[in-house]
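We store chain and fold; thus.
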Amino acid sequence: MLAPDFELISDSGAPVRLSSLRGQKVILYFYPKDDTSGCTTQACGFRDAYPQIEEQHAVVLGVSPDGVKSHVKFKTKHNLPFTLLVDADHAVAELYGLWVEKSMYGRKYMGVERSHFVIDAQGVIIAAAIKVKPAESVAQALAALG
């Protein structure tokens, strides 16, 4: 299946269109919130594996509803070498089926389902992990790349 195309603002304030990355493999991952424990685990995992990801001629894009300022702070604090994208209205999360009802301490709310997609150089989704555990996301994505 061809990855649904989108354009979002990056942590640098510049627009990024998924289809403009054709010719490269992409790990597109969705996470609920900057600088929370699970999201930090996942982001730092991709950071630590980034040399292996680059060897596979791939890039990483992280997507959450947080704004540019939050992304910049998160990226700087954890020395993240990849781009974070702002999905403030969660339209892209909805496009990928990841804006879902969640529950914490009996309270229901809408939020992003932690997930990743591995997209080949032609823009085709070759692997997807929905509701993935933060510590397992990176290894699964790397396995799909190789």
About this structure: The mean pLDDT is 96. The radius of gyration is 14 Å. The CA atoms of residues 47 and 80 lie 6 Å apart.
